[in-house]
Structure formats: structure tokens, C-alpha cells
């Protein structure tokens, strides 16, 4: 059982989950890596753009319980759909720096090769009004533009989100789904 955590405190042992351009690690028969989980403290590394990394770290850890894994899309949601990212920092540069640290084995990370639908769900985050039903043709591309070329995590989420083909129709802000997606 976890201890209660006061919402004004920063939590240790919080993790950032983010999707990125796929890559294949060195070695025979390696699986494509397209999503990573890193400890929040990785954002404080000297090779991460600062003060952006420090500001994102503060947002990521503020009011969380130890052990929480927070998707980048959740931070975007908390920043009013990404409108306030400029006041916090350049998330694209920070995640690119994190990926560089991961690939050089300079920070602890859990590297994941998620299937397209699972990756799309990570990209979509809490602002989605419906679950994606069909992954994009290439999980890392939308309209021919790589994820890194998009202007915000929200635009990446919009790329991954598809209209539902469900008989239940899309969920709305006033009528959340009655079952987990």
C-alpha cells in the first residue's frame, strides 16, 4: 500500500512515458523501439536542455504519488491542451535529448516496442474523446510528416486518433465512456 502523498509536494520515483521515432538498437534480431519510460530525474541531466528539463521535471513530479508513470500526453492535457507548453519549455528538444541519452546508455530507461494501436493510445492521452480504432499506416508518421516535425504533443495525439467505428459512437466531455477503453 502506498502512503498518501500531499498534492503540493514533488514525488520521487515518478516516470515519464513518451513515444518517439522508432529505431532498432544495435545487435542481431532486435525489436523496433518506439516508446520509452525514464525516471523524472533524467530530466535534470546536464545533457538535457535546461531550464526546460527542470521545468518539465517540476510539472511531472508535482502532486504525483511515487511510482506513477505519466505519459507526455497527460502533461499536455494539464497544460490546457498544450497551450502553456511555451511557458514550461521545449518538450520536443527535451525528449530528443532524452532519446539521445537512452541510445548512448547514459540514463536508465525502459525501452518499449509497442504495437501500433498501443503506441497510438500512448500518443492520444487524456484529451481523446474516443479511442483509436485503426492505427495510422506508419505508426511514426502522419500525412508524411515525422512525429518530431509536429508542433506539439497534441498534434501528435491528433495524428494517432481516429474516428470510432463503434456502434456506441464517440464519447463526449459530458458523457464519458462507461467502460475502460
- Per DSSP, the total helix count is 6
Question: Helical percent range?
Answer: 25-40%
- How big a fraction of the residues is strand? 5-15%
Note the overall shape.
Answer: globular
How many individual β-strands?
6
**Gap between N and C termini:** 26 Å
Structural class category:
alpha+beta
Look at the structure and give the mean pLDDT: 73
The radius of gyration computed from the alpha-carbon positions, rounded to a whole number of angstroms, is 17 Å
Low-confidence regions: 1-9, 130-181
Following the backbone from N to C, one meets helices and strands in this order, namely EEHEHHHEHEEH
Strand order of the largest sheet: 3-1-2-4
Largest sheet: 4 strands, mixed
